[in-house]
Amino acid sequence: MKSEIWIALDGGTTNTRGTVVIEGTVTETVKFDVGVRDTKGAGDNAVKAAVRACLEELLDRIRQNRESVEFVASGMLGSEAGLVDLPHVMAPANAMDLARGSIVWRDPLSDRIPIRILPGIRTGPSNGTGSQFEHLLAQDIMRGEETQVIGIREWLLARNQEFVSDAWLLLWPGSHTKLIAVEPDGTIAGSFTSLAGETYAALRSATLLKRSVPDESTGQMEEELLDQAVDAVETHGLLRAAFWTRVADITSSLDRERRGHWLSAIVTAEDVRSLSRQAWVRSGRFRRILVGGESGRQAAYVRALRRSVDTTVEPLEDEAVRNAAALGAVSLGRLTKSIL
């Protein structure tokens, strides 16, 4: 019997990834450090070149011709800076809505391989109490995290159904932090986004603080330092806490590596302070916050959240984090084949 082979492509702000999934199991992954911030718009851009490189390398690794493989793409590959500008579907949205909002795109420079591109989700103005502007501020967009929700939910249904038996929140820190509300049946109610990751990158590389921190921080952030950062941001705010990074350099209060950790910690603390006031978190209806993302950042958010909210906060296992986008994309790809 012929094996089901998929290549799932995922594009983000800073990288483009390709993953081979055979009979539901991830077997190969390749990543290029090219994302939508490296391209200025439509046309034959850097992201399209990265997608071609992913496909070429993965097809060579698995020794398959393209006719034997199904292709699906998610994330920013469905944006104007990716492969094609695909409209978002409106929240609340379920897997069927995402499948119906997908299209097939063929790259004229890559043997016209048919790639099923999945849409993102747009959160519309709220209907609750408050001013008209407050309703408008509830608007949000995401591309990619909705696919991760599908993959994580399937992964948990096979291993720990308790985590998703009630309404839950997914928090995914990265270049942008996404908080996503998910109903028990898997319907995505909406998203809430902050610019935390890019704010940290900008503070580290485009301000005076560049002189005081390493180009890249290494090692594990100390829990005590994170706790101090949470307290400093709560008392003095992000901007004062950020400037203290420079003071810590001049006065030798922290060594260079710990100053890098401090800067990351205060941005995390500010992000968590905002998230803890978000309506979904305050409502008490969402029983758990599941946290993904890179392991060091994940650990920092879990600790800071546990200090700030009454909701149960759980880190996702590495396997779920690593494979969520690919498994979710393949699940939606299969669904498109059954309905379109």
Structural overview:
With 340 residues, this protein is of the alpha/beta class. It has a domain at 5-165 and 317-339: Nucleotidyltransferase, domain 5, CATH 3.30.420.40. Helices cover 41% and strands 21% of the residues. It is built from 11 helices and 14 strands. The protein has helices at 46-62, 95-100, 132-137, 145-157, 196-205, 223-236, 238-250, 256-275, 279-283, 295-308, 318-339, and strands spanning 5-11, 16-22, 25-32, 70-75, 89-90, 103-106, 114-117, 121-123, 140-142, 168-172, 177-182, 188-194, 288-291, 312-315. It has a 6-stranded mixed sheet, with helices on both faces. A hairpin with a 2-residue loop joins strand 2 and strand 3. Helix 4 packs across helix 11, helix 5 runs antiparallel to helix 8 (256-275) and helix 6 crosses helix 8 (256-275).
Give the structure's gist in a few sentences.
This protein is an alpha/beta fold. Helices cover about 40% and strands about 20% of the residues.
